[in-house]
Design brief:
By secondary structure, this protein is of the alpha+beta class. It has a single domain, classed as 2,3-Dihydroxybiphenyl 1,2-Dioxygenase, domain 1 (Roll). 19% of the residues lie in helices and 35% in strands. It is built from five helices and 18 strands. It has helices at residues 23-33, 85-97, 150-155, 181-191, 246-258; strands at 12-19, 37-41, 45-49, 55-60, 74-82, 103-106, 110-116, 122-128, 136-137, 140-141, 170-177, 195-200, 204-208, 216-219, 235-243, 264-266, 269-273, 279-284. The strands form three sheets. Strands 2-3-4-1-15-18-17-16 form an eight-stranded mixed β-sheet. A hairpin with a 2-residue loop joins strand 16 (264-266) and strand 17 (269-273). The longest helix has 13 residues, at 85-97. The chain is globular and about 55 Å long. The protein starts with 11 loop residues before the first strand and ends with a strand. The model has no long low-confidence stretch (mean pLDDT 95).
């Protein structure tokens, strides 16, 4: 894991906030299965971390909540980035031993595992290959969906047991369902300042800051013109983007306003809705 992509001058995802149907059940899943730890908890909300300090995920049970909707915009998955391949091997064995249904892939730039939480929210757990091994052509990075070398991953283990996620684990990226890629590109690139690193068959875009393979993924796999989920459905509540400094954030807000997107203050936070109804908190690293 190379921290250069998750510090100034990069803009990156800090935290993800989810709405869930049963808080107790979700806490058990995210601690026992995923390996996060609770650092704050109230009757209807919990904040989870890998290092005991930095919040990565917030789960909240609203007073009225319905199951996650299908064929809508919203969360495809959030992605937890591990520091190395050994850590991924430990997670892989732990999840397999528990009989968790998994997807897996080698993306050339990374190796990844995929699963869902009890509400059907998608989770990716991955490790990056060194950025010097990534292949770029005309500003686009080469990514694939190849089979994961599970045997090679298993060979990384030498009797080490899984003991939760490493403290160095961070939020690597978020991948969203959107209803229109052109509108999404307009918002995320022209407005927020991200660059396109991959365009897949006019159905998915991968966006980056500072040369990462992607901090944000966008797709129309739920259908072009898919409606947003109701606020009453389980799923993504909002996520936070961390800008390197106040000036960069203010410039992004100004560009969004010029494009017709209004940013609102909610609870002391600057919140903006993307064209598909996904809420984004615009914050500053270290604030």
């Amino acid at each position: 894991m190379e921290s250069v992509f998750f510090q100034a001058p990069s803009t990156y995802v800090g935290t993800v906030e989810l709405k869930v149907q049963e808080l107790t059940k979700s806490i058990q899943f995210y601690t026992d299965v995923i390996g996060l730890q609770v650092i704050e908890q109230s009757e209807y909300k919990a904040v989870l971390s890998a290092d005991g300090t930095r919040a990565l995920l917030t789960i909240e049970q609203p007073s009225f909540i319905q199951p996650k909707a299908k064929a809508t915009t919203g969360l495809y998955h959030f992605a937890l980035l591990l520091p190395d391949r050994l850590s991924l091997a430990k997670v892989f064995k732990h999840l397999a031993d528990r009989g968790i249904r998994l997807g897996a892939a080698d993306h050339l730039v990374s190796e990844a595992l995929y699963l869902n939480d009890p509400d059907g929210n998608g989770i990716e757990i991955y490790r990056d290959r060194p950025s010097k091994t990534w292949t770029w052509h005309n500003g686009k990075v080469t990514m694939t969906v190849d089979p994961l070398d599970s045997k090679g991953l298993h060979k990384e283990l030498s009797g080490q047991d899984w003991q939760g996620l490493p403290t160095e684990t961070i939020m690597g990226h978020i991948h969203l369902h959107v209803h229109d890629l052109d509108q999404a590109r307009h918002f995320y690139c022209d407005g927020l300042g991200f660059e396109i690193t991959s365009d897949q068959l006019n159905q998915a875009l991968f966006l980056s800051s500072n040369g990462y393979h992607h901090h944000i993924g966008l797709n129309t796999w739920q259908g072009t013109n898919a409606p947003p989920a109701s606020e009453e459905n389980a799923g993504l509540k909002q996520y936070t983007l961390l800008f390197p400094n106040q000036a960069k954030r203010d410039q992004a807000i100004q560009r969004l306003q010029q494009l017709g997107y209004g940013a609102d203050m909610q609870g002391g936070q600057t919140v903006v809705s993307d064209p598909s109804g996904n809420l984004v908190i615009l914050a500053v690293h270290g604030s």
